[in-house]
Amino acid sequence: MPSPRLLAPNFEEIDAGLWRPDTWRALPAVQQPDWPDPGELAAVTDYLSGLPPLTAVGEIRALRDDLAQVAEGAAVLLQGGDCAEPLGRAAAEAARGKRGLLAALGERLAESSGRRAVTVGRIAGQFAKPRSAPTEQVGDRLLPVFRGLMVNDPAPTTAARQPDPYRLLSAYYTAKQVIEELAGAGGPLDTSHETLILEYEQALTRFDDESGEWFLRSTHLPWVGDRTRQIGGAHLHFLAGLGNPVAVKIGPDATPEDAVRICALLDPHRLPGRLTLISRMGAGRVADRLPPLVHAVAAAGHRVAWICDPMHGNTVRTGVGLKTRHLDTVVAEATGFVAAVRAGGAEPAGLHLELTAEDVTECVGGPTVPDESRLGRAYHSLCDPRLNPHQAGVVVDAVAEAMRP
């Protein structure tokens, strides 16, 4: 049983020497599936814990060094990929296109900003999604909500929406295929995903004898979302003990005190490269809400990298209920973020985008999707709308221009 000090309300006092991959279980964990058979889940995660890790400690350390350069202002971070990845061969087949798109966008961002670009994919693990409610109404039926293919299936039936722990294995083997595909394309892309289903992440956390650190080996850069960043909650506690670089999304409800406490928990030694904060405020709120947070974090001595997710705070529904985002609003938040971070006394460090290399029509804007009537032509996302390559380029170019020295 974890010590009382480890689980004290003042989480700035966590003793890293007492942290273990399973100590999160003593804390409240939100956004978790209601697994129907705990014994079956335990059997699956026990099997997972014996499988080879997906990432190497040396790769994780190299990314941590790169992100230190981002935090110091010598490089810029571009993080992007699917909202929710598919399972199976389709994910691997799409990997090369995503890698190529991120590389091209990174070059554009580097050239215009005058900084080296560090690119990280939302890839090889983005299989689970937090949701605003545990159920949804589909016609005359109330069904469990779709939580990503790691958990259940989007088909609107009770059986399909039942959480299935064997999907954790499908997620692992899909991620393995994706990483192998990326390696065959001329060098692996650093990977990232939201740390959401904690049983999966615990099973892939391994101790490194050389450094004496625990590393999450399902990915290079794990992050916690705005819905699961509770001080005293399981998700932040899980990140706190890892040797990986880590990230947290910060939404419009966060206070300066919240931001400083998150930094104290995850970056107690104030090491550049350890912590990235991902702002997702919404275009209409970034100018007012973000500068006080940036100022408070800097005043507390934390040299974090601030990047912008201009997608999640700007999701709207069409008249027929389809989720979308408008390109001009996404650009407005992204460029407003640059000004807001500088107003808070720091330097903006990059972008976090939901995008795809496919010519989808999920967000409004640009020549192929001039209005909402064009959204149905190629709307393929499993969850939230993604930028197509042209739209992603517009956002990157606008931010690069705003970030010019």
Automatic annotation (TrEMBL):
Enzyme class: transferase
Reaction(s) the record says it catalyses: D-erythrose 4-phosphate + phosphoenolpyruvate + H2O = 7-phospho-2-dehydro-3-deoxy-D-arabino-heptonate + phosphate
Pfam families named in the record: DAHP_synth_2
Pathway: Metabolic intermediate biosynthesis; chorismate biosynthesis; chorismate from D-erythrose 4-phosphate and phosphoenolpyruvate: step 1/7
InterPro entries, A to Z: Aldolase_TIM, DAHP_synth_2
Cofactors, names only: Mn(2+); Co(2+); Cd(2+)
Cofactor note: Binds 1 divalent cation per subunit. The enzyme is active with manganese, cobalt or cadmium ions.
Keyword Transferase belongs to the record: yes
GO biological process: one example: amino acid biosynthetic process
EC number(s) stated in the UniProt entry for this protein: 2.5.1.54
List of residues binding phosphoenolpyruvate: R122, K249, R280
Entry keyword set: Amino-acid biosynthesis, Aromatic amino acid biosynthesis, Cadmium, Cobalt, Manganese, Transferase
Keyword match Transferase: yes
Gene Ontology molecular function terms on file: 3-deoxy-7-phosphoheptulonate synthase activity
SUPFAM superfamilies: Aldolase
Binding site for Mn(2+): C83, H312, E354, D384
Family: Belongs to the class-II DAHP synthase family.
Name this protein carries in UniProt: Phospho-2-dehydro-3-deoxyheptonate aldolase
Organism of provenance: Actinoplanes teichomyceticus
